[in-house]
């Protein structure tokens, strides 16, 4: 099953990385100047993880929806619905952020 | 028991406009059902409803005595070629075939006069004819019993049209195929059952004269 999802997963992940970098940059501008008990690096990584799993993912899925909607038929013909595709891809993103969560403990 | 797709009571409206009114259709392996109709009569809408990707309040779809709300989710039941290209443009032909080839022999699939020349090419760099040929061939080679083809001949060269027609005729012995295209001559060439979508209803027809009588083609056309 994972093999069938990979083209969608790779596309969404690439978009998500870009969107999340932009969102992290904007968040950092807003929040890094405020006093915090955490180091700036910790906050930047935490922001990045947060955006990857929320706004970045949502924006990527939405961008795919409006620009490449017909490609969903590639997956429909394999018996994979849109909801299933998005949920499974989201799960795969959890694996992607695991190393970042690990790094977060040491900064 | 032979495989059987039954469609009944399909209704669909967009706003105030009723596009489909109590559509009923039956398809079995060996059938090539040609579906004709003017622009906006609901051919693609009907196919998407049968496939299960377009919602409608009223529909009854049964495959082999099993009622299905979204038939595409049932493996090996139905596949659908949409009007527009659906293969990811950033993948190569090889990769697409590799993903779809859980159902068939990948090497044999690529050994034909069209695909053998483009195996490493990205989908986005294929010509319209090559891309459509690949899409049709992929879907006809899946082990689904029923195949819905929405404009398989749209905008492609005569050579690719003939190759696609040959594939459809070859696969029809094992599959039920429903196809629609504005190039009605090609539809008439390959189909063995014919319907015209007209005024929201599905009307079976047998002769070209019926198409003239119902105003689908002008009289001088034949």
Characterization of the model:
The complex is a heterodimer of chains A (107) and B (222). By secondary structure, chain A is an all-alpha fold. Chain A has 5 helices and no strands. Chain A has one domain. Chain A is elongated. Chain A starts with a helix and ends with a helix. With 222 residues, chain B is of the alpha/beta class. Chain B has a single domain, classed as 3-Layer(aba) Sandwich (Rossmann fold). Chain B has a 6-stranded mixed β-sheet with strand order 6-7-8-3-9-10, sandwiched between helices. Chain B is globular, with a radius of gyration of 17 Å. The mean pLDDT of chain B is 91. The A-B interface holds A 3-4, 6-7, 11, 68, 70-74, 76-79, 81 and B 51, 53, 70, 72-75, 79-80, 82, 84-88, 90-91, 95, 99-100, 138-139, 142.
What's the rounded overall pLDDT mean of chain B?
A: 91
Q: What is the CATH homologous superfamily assignment of chain B?
A: P-loop containing nucleotide triphosphate hydrolases
> Which runs of chain A of at least 5 residues are low in confidence (pLDDT < 50)?
none
Quaternary state of this entry equals heterodimer
Output mean pLDDT of chain A.
Answer: 91
Main pleated sheet of chain A: none
Strand coverage percent of chain B: 25-35%
Name of the CATH first level of chain B: Alpha Beta
Helix content percent band of chain B: 25-40%
Structure annotation, total helices of chain B: 7
Question: What's the overall geometry of chain A?
Answer: elongated
Secondary structure topology:
The complex is a heterodimer of chains A (107) and B (222).
Chain A: H1 2-31, H2 40-53, H3 55-67, H4 72-76, H5 82-104
Chain B: E1 5-14, E2 17-27, E3 32-37, H1 43-51, E4 58-63, E5 66-67, E6 78-81, H2 93-100, H3 106-110, H4 128-141, E7 146-150, H5 158-171, E8 176-180, H6 184-190, E9 193-198, E10 201-204, H7 208-213
Helix pairs in contact in B: 4-5
């Amino acid at each position: 099953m994972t093999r069938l999802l990979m083209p969608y997963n790779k596309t969404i992940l690439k978009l998500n990385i870009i969107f999340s970098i932009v969102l992290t940059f904007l968040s950092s501008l807003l929040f890094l100047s405020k006093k915090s008990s955490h180091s700036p690096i910790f906050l930047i990584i935490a922001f990045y993880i947060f955006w990857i799993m929320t706004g970045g993912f949502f924006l990527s899925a939405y961008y795919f929806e409006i620009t490449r909607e017909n490609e969903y038929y590639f997956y429909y013909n394999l018996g994979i619905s849109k909801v299933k595709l998005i949920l499974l891809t989201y799960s795969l993103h959890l694996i992607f952020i695991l190393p970042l969560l690990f790094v977060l403990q040491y900064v | 028991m032979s495989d059987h797709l039954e469609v009944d009571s399909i209704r669909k409206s967009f706003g105030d406009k009723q596009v489909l009114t109590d559509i009923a259709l039956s398809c079995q392996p060996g059938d090539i059902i040609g579906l004709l109709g003017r622009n906006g009569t609901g051919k693609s809408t009907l196919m998407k409803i049968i496939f299960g990707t377009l919602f409608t309040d009223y529909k009854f779809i049964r495959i082999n005595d099993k009622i299905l709300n979204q038939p595409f989710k049932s493996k090996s039941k139905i596949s659908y070629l949409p009007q527009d290209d659906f293969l990811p443009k950033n993948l190569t032909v090889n990769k697409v075939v590799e993903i779809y080839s859980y159902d068939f022999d990948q090497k044999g699939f690529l050994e034909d006069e069209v695909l053998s020349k483009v195996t490493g090419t990205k989908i986005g760099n294929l010509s319209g004819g090559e891309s459509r040929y690949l899409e049709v061939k992929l879907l006809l080679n899946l082990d689904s019993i029923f195949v819905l083809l929405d404009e398989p001949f749209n905008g492609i060269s005569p050579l690719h049209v003939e190759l696609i027609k040959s594939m459809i005729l070859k696969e029809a012995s094992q599959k039920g195929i429903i196809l629609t295209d504005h190039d009605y001559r090609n539809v008439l060439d390959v189909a063995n059952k014919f319907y015209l979508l007209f005024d929201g209803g599905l009307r079976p027809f047998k002769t070209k004269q019926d198409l003239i009588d119902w105003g689908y083609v002008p009289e001088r056309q034949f």
